[in-house]
Design brief:
heterodimer, A: mainly alpha, about 0% strand, B: mainly alpha, about 75% helix
Chain lengths: ~170, ~160
């Protein structure tokens, strides 16, 4: 059987099935449907906006909390690192929510996922991976002004710190 | 008054597109009445939400396909959390489930279930004899990409058909 025959068989079966579905749809009682104001329709895009904003708010709350608590403890490199991570995560989630707000006004289209990275990971995992990569870059490249400056830390010191943070991140994701 | 007109226009559109939505629900679920009903509800929510933005930029049916596919694919990826605001009659969903129990149709769905969500969407449009240009509009891809992908799906179906016999 060649591919045209195989598809022809499929199309004939589908045509009969399709006709039956149309008959059933014709008898479908739509008077049961009660539409509510759009504001209450929580579509997946609106859910994404809300969860992005919620995540950004959590980051902001933790940053503010840390600033207050800082009066009571000595800041170290992890503290700085955590700050940078939270700030970046907050920025990424805010950008994500702004993008979703913009997309909300666009005609939705099916997103053909050609990229394995995009199809395998959720937007938050992608945001977390992106934030981690940026933080890692900053961690290696930018000296943090502190008593224990990163520029003075050895490479093994930095690698150990990154391993610890990666472990924490993988647990969170 | 305007709201009432909009409501009526939407319900008329829904009446015209009901069978299209059912076909998408059957293709993207396991044909369980409860799951079909959930997906139908999600698609109607999305259509209702997007309805004010539909300004005839494409055919109504093409617009319905694009919104419904988008909703179905995202529901397949992430479980739906839509509020249960539609009161739907169960009989229709039971009839649809019964209709899908025919042995030939079950076999058809068995093959379709092995395709990826974008391929399923394209196959449904192809089976519904939608022109390639409109398929492209509904899926946001070019006509050439539609034709190329259709050929790939045909090859896939042929292989699947041979391996499952």
């Amino acid at each position: 059987m060649n591919k045209e025959d195989s598809l022809q068989e499929l199309m004939t079966a589908w045509q009969q099935h399709s006709d039956r579905i149309e008959q059933i749809a014709g008898q479908h009682d739509l008077s049961h449907i009660k539409l509510v104001p759009r504001l209450f329709v929580l579509s997946s895009r609106r859910r994404r906006i809300l969860s992005s904003l919620a995540m950004a708010l959590v980051c902001l709350t933790v940053i503010v909390g840390m600033v207050i608590l800082r009066q009571h403890y000595i800041s170290d490199i992890f503290d700085q690192f955590f700050f940078a991570f939270l700030a970046l995560l907050m920025v990424v989630t805010l950008i994500q929510s702004l993008r979703q707000i913009f997309l909300l006004r666009q005609q939705p289209q099916l997103n053909f996922q050609f990229s394995i990275f995009n199809s395998q990971f959720s937007p938050y995992s992608r945001a977390a991976v992106f934030a981690s990569v940026v933080v890692m870059f900053l961690f290696f490249a930018v000296p943090i002004p502190n008593d224990r400056s990163m520029s003075q830390a050895s490479l093994s010191h930095r690698s150990a710190a990154i391993t610890n943070v990666s472990f924490v991140l993988s647990n969170i994701i | 008054m305007n709201q009432n007109k909009e409501h009526i226009a939407f319900m008329e559109m829904l009446r015209r597109s009901d069978s299209t939505i059912f076909k998408i629900c059957l293709m993207f679920t396991d044909r369980d009445p409860k799951n079909v009903k959930d997906m139908y509800q999600d698609i109607v929510c999305s259509l209702w939400e997007s309805w004010p933005r539909f300004r005839g930029q494409c055919k109504e049916n093409t617009w319905v396909y694009s919104i419904a596919f988008n909703t179905a694919v995202s529901q397949v990826r992430h479980r739906s959390l839509s509020p249960m605001f539609l009161s739907l009659d169960d009989n229709t969903y039971n009839y649809l489930a019964e209709e899908s129990k025919n042995s030939l149709i079950e076999r058809l769905y068995e093959l379709i279930d092995r395709l990826s969500p974008p391929d399923k969407a394209l196959l449904l449009l192809y089976l519904d004899r939608i022109p390639a240009r409109e398929m492209g509009q509904a899926l946001g891809i070019t006509e050439a990409a539609v034709n190329h992908r259709i050929e790939r799906i045909k090859d896939k179906l042929k292989t699947l058909n041979q391996t499952t016999i």
